[in-house]
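User: What would this chain look like folded?
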Amino acid sequence: MTRRKRRLAVIGVAGAILAAALGLALSAMRDTIVFFRSPGEVAAKGVSPGTRFRLGGLVETGSVARGPGETVAFKVGDGTASVPVTYRGLLPDLFREGQGVVAEGALSPAGLFVADTILARHDERYMPREVADALKAQGRWQEGGAGKAGTPGQVTAPGQVTSQR
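Assistant: Here's the prediction, encoded as structure tokens.
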């Protein structure tokens, strides 16, 4: 075998090994990837029962009903649609009506979202330091009193952000 053919053979074998490793990694991740959907997307796209995904929206006012033990039923909405959710377990401290929530689980055949994880989202007015610094650099950040980057901020109009305490 010539030197050139040996080099091509080594490159071919290395490419095959790399392709096999990539295929194994992608097949292993297929079970762990969970997509995010809003209640409007769930209603419009008709997600099939048993499909795991994350459902995000606001807990609708007046929809929280506590059942026996640690069972809680509530509705998550986004202004266009709402999805009934049931969860068994301890809820996060930030969970309440009107608050943002992300629930991870699957739809039952009856259209009920059975959650196994509930995450309460922080207040939407929170502004991370990096985002606040970028807005300051663009001249879009307005200091409100003693506010500083990394404290809650609020978008008051397109392009305007003020900090709040």
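The beta strands are 35-37, 52-59, 65-66, 71-77, 82-88, 100-107, 113-120, 141-142, 153-157, 160-163. If you want, I can go into more detail on any region.
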